[in-house]
Structures are given as structure tokens and as C-alpha cells.
């Protein structure tokens, strides 16, 4: 491949979506992935309608997405006493032109990977190749330094380097050497899946509890003939973070009994959380972390995207969605400005400040902030929600979040495609 190619550091959802986008618009590229093999890691995530629209435009339609998840029908918040705080339809049910999908993160990743290999060939992705750093040439090019699993190093030249290498990004560390360390706000999450009957509807996203103890529960598969689906759950507790994260591991498997006691009182006639947790085969612990926003995602011929640019708390279910949108905006910028640093600046100008605000908004609980308000006003226990948070206040709160996250319904439905079908970089 020639020097004109775009080098993509990282083969996660962000990097693979960018690879698919560049293939679609006729830009040479290579994806460099540190792992020696692609495996379906992780549990459930949500893909918002603004990102599903972009996947549809890449040819990943509902038929294909149905193989890895289920369209979301409802989003609901419930107080400590098990009573509804707020509920609204989601995706097509809400009037969007595109669905919202709850999917298995690992299967989503493999769908993107396999589709990219089918379309662009096996050489499109180089495994066992971690980008350690970069240098820029006088001729608007970039040289990436790679490290292999055996410790050997090599270099690769390209026109642009896109750092899609996650929250621990080496590309970002070089671009912003004085960046603050990873930020942990005190919340610890435990994640897992079970086979069970979905709550409320066949595909409801249910948030339960307060800012101190919270559960998130939603299906990531269609309901089988026995009435059960694969249910994704997230248990969360906020702790004292004054001494920072005290573990060497950011993600590890733990026993259910090590955390289930935090949710002993979450028992209702429609859900017994402790019993649900103890039905899980396994659980994984990780702190809820992000990074402080930076003032730019671009350094000449190098740009950041996905978690490398804007790692955020998952409270708004939009980390993966924003990574997908990043890829499409980058592709549109290259259509407008060529495969140049000017395209990267255009992308940065469009997204960096806006998404940085979203990172900070998610720190304050994102759409789950309604539960914080509820806790402040009544401790999470109420008879009539209207006397605590009136309906219009609840609706206004959610509308502001959707607008900030880029999926306000009328704005999204009426906006043109990010990339017009058939467009190619000349």
C-alpha cells in the first residue's frame, strides 16, 4: 500500500467503523490492532438512532443488526420503591426514522470486523500491531511506530494517522503529554448477563435506584419461545474516591457475592435484584472512568476519535454511538477537503467542543440525573411522582440531554445524510 493511505490505530468499534467508511468513499487505509486475534469481548451496549442511521448508510441494515441485538422499545427510570419515575418510547416507537439497538458489544465488534474483511480484504486489518507513537514529515505525512507482541518495532508511513486506540491511547498521550490521569468519580460497576424474562416490554431499558446504588437492566436479544431473552445488567455503587482507584486492574472477573449485598433491598413484586444477580454465570468489575476533555483532537496530520478522543461515562449509552458518528464525520470531512490535515481540522471544529461538553454532562449522571433529583427531593421514595418532579420538568430534562447527545428527534429526522450514497474522494 502507498503512502497515501490513512493509518488507523485501534481495531475497536471506532477504528473498524472508520475503516468501513473509508472503504465506502474510496480512501486507502489500514487498521492496526494490538490484539493478536479478534474476539467478541464485553456485554451489552446501546446504539442510539443517530449512530444506527450511520450503520444503515454503511449497509449494516436491520436484518444484520437483528443478528446481534434487539431494537429498543422503551427507556424507563424507577425509584427505590419500585415505582415509575419516567418512561418514554425509544427508536421507531418514539417516531425516529431509525431504531435504537441494544446489542452485545462483542458481537457488534465482530460484525464490524467481519464486514470490513469481507469488503476490503484480510490485509485491511493488521493484528498484533500496537501504535506506540508517531512523527510527522515535512510533506504532510506521518510515520507511525508499531510494537509487536514479541517486542519488535517497525514503522509505517501514511498520509494521516487516526488514533482510535481507546482510553489508554498512546496517540493521545503523545499529542497531550501533560494530560490529567484517568478520572474516576467513585462509581464502581459490575456487569453480566442472564437468561430471563424481559421487564415491562420485550425490549425495555430500565434504570433503578439512586446515584449511590443503581441497577440498569435491558435485553440484548429477542425473546425465545420460552419467553426469555439474554438480559444485560449493570450494578453500580458510588464509593469514596479520595485515594483513587486502588486496584492494578481496570477490568476483572469477580464473584457475585462480592457485591450483591449492596442491592439486598432491591426487591419488588416485579423484580428481585439479588435473586437475578445470583442467576448470572459470571460478573465483571470495572470503575466508571473517563478523561478530562482536551482543547483539540488534532495535531497536524494526526487526529483522535472514539474513546481516545472523548472517553465518557456510560450513563447516556452514547460512547459507542459517538464513536460511530466520529467515523462518519471524519469521512465527510475527507470528502469535502481531501485526505488532508484540513479535513482533520474541520472534523475537530465540528465535534471536539460539543462532545467535550457531553463528557462533562455525563459525569453529572447524564439522563440518570433524574434519579439524583428524586433522591434530593424525597430520598427515592414517593407515592405520586407528580408531587416530586412534575411531568413537564421530567420531559424538559430528557429533551436537553437528547439535544446535547445529538439525537433530538426532529433535528435528527430532518437532517441530511452525513455521507451521500455513492460519494467518493477524488
Which structural class should the secondary elements be placed in?
Answer: alpha+beta
Number of strands: 22
Q: Quaternary status of these chains?
A: single chain
Average pLDDT number: 93
| Terminal CA distance | 18 Å
Query: Can you count the helices?
Result: 12
Evaluate the radius of gyration. 22 Å
Q: How would you describe the shape?
A: globular
Biggest β-sheet description: 8 strands, mixed
- State the helical fraction: 25-40%
Low-confidence stretches: none
Q: Indicate the proportion of strand residues.
A: 25-35%
The order of strands across the largest sheet is: 6-5-14-15-16-13-20-17
Brief overview:
The protein contains 12 helices and 22 strands. With 426 residues, it is of the alpha+beta class.
Write the layout of secondary structure elements.
Elements: E1 6-9, H1 13-25, E2 29-32, E3 44-47, H2 49-57, H3 62-65, E4 69-71, E5 74-78, E6 84-89, E7 101-104, H4 105-120, E8 125-126, E9 130-136, E10 142-147, E11 153-158, E12 160-163, H5 170-175, E13 183-196, E14 204-209, E15 213-219, E16 229-238, E17 252-254, E18 267-268, E19 271-272, H6 273-277, E20 283-290, E21 298-299, E22 302-304, H7 307-310, H8 319-337, H9 341-363, H10 369-378, H11 391-405, H12 409-414
Parallel strand pairs: 1-2, 1-12, 2-8, 5-14, 12-22
Antiparallel strand pairs: 3-7, 4-7, 5-6, 9-10, 10-11, 13-16, 13-20, 14-15, 15-16, 17-20, 18-19, 21-22
Amino acid at each position: 500500500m502507498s503512502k497515501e493511505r490513512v493509518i488507523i490505530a485501534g481495531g475497536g468499534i471506532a477504528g473498524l467503523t472508520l475503516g468501513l467508511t473509508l472503504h465506502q468513499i474510496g480512501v486507502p487505509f489500514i487498521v492496526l490492532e494490538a490484539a493478536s486475534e479478534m474476539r467478541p469481548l464485553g456485554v451489552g451496549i446501546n446504539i442510539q438512532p443517530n449512530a444506527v442511521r450511520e450503520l444503515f448508510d454503511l449497509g449494516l441494515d436491520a436484518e444484520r443488526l437483528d443478528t446481534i441485538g434487539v431494537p429498543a422499545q422503551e427507556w424507563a427510570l424507577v425509584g427505590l420503591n419500585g415505582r415509575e419515575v419516567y418512561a418514554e418510547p425509544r427508536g421507531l416507537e418514539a417516531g425516529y426514522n431509525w431504531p435504537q439497538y441494544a446489542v452485545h458489544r462483542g458481537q457488534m465488534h465482530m460484525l464490524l470486523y467481519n464486514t470490513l474483511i469481507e469488503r476490503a480484504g484480510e490485509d485491511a486489518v493488521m493484528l498484533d500491531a500496537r501504535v506506540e507513537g508517531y512523527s510527522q514529515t515535512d510533506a504532510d505525512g506521518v510515520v507511525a511506530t508499531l510494537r509487536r507482541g514479541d517486542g519488535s518495532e517497525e514503522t509505517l508511513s501514511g498520509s494521516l494517522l487516526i488514533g482510535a486506540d481507546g482510553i489508554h491511547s498512546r496517540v493521545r498521550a503523545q499529542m497531550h503529554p501533560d494530560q490529567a490521569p484517568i478520572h474516576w468519580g467513585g462509581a464502581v460497576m459490575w456487569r453480566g448477563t442472564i437468561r430471563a424474562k424481559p421487564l415491562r416490554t420485550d425490549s425495555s431499558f430500565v434504570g433503578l435506584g439512586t446515584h449511590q446504588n443503581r441497577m440498569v437492566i435491558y435485553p440484548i436479544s429477542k425473546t425465545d419461545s420460552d419467553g426469555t431473552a439474554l438480559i444485560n445488567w449493570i450494578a453500580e455503587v458510588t464509593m469514596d474516591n479520595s485515594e483513587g482507584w486502588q486496584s492494578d486492574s481496570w477490568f476483572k472477573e469477580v464473584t457475585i457475592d462480592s457485591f450483591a449485598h449492596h442491592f439486598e433491598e432491591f426487591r419488588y413484586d416485579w423484580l428481585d435484584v439479588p435473586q437475578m444477580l445470583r442467576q448470572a454465570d459470571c460478573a465483571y468489575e470495572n470503575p466508571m472512568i473517563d478523561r478530562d476533555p482536551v482543547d483539540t483532537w488534532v495535531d497536524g496530520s494526526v487526529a483522535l476519535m472514539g474513546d481516545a478522543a472523548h472517553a465518557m461515562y456510560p450513563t447516556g449509552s452514547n460512547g459507542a454511538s459517538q464513536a460511530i458518528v466520529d467515523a462518519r464525520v471524519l469521512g465527510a470531512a475527507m470528502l469535502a477537503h481531501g485526505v488532508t490535515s484540513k479535513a482533520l481540522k474541520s472534523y475537530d471544529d465540528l465535534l471536539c467542543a460539543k462532545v467535550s461538553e457531553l463528557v462533562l454532562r455525563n459525569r453529572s449522571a447524564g439522563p440518570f440525573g433524574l434519579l439524583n433529583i428524586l433522591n434530593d427531593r424525597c430520598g427515592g421514595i414517593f407515592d405520586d411522582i407528580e408531587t416530586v418532579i412534575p411531568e413537564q420538568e421530567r420531559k424538559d430534562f430528557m429533551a436537553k440531554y437528547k439535544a446535547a447527545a445529538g439525537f433530538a428527534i426532529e433535528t435528527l429526522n430532518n437532517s441530511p445524510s452525513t455521507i451521500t450514497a455513492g460519494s467518493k474522494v477524488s
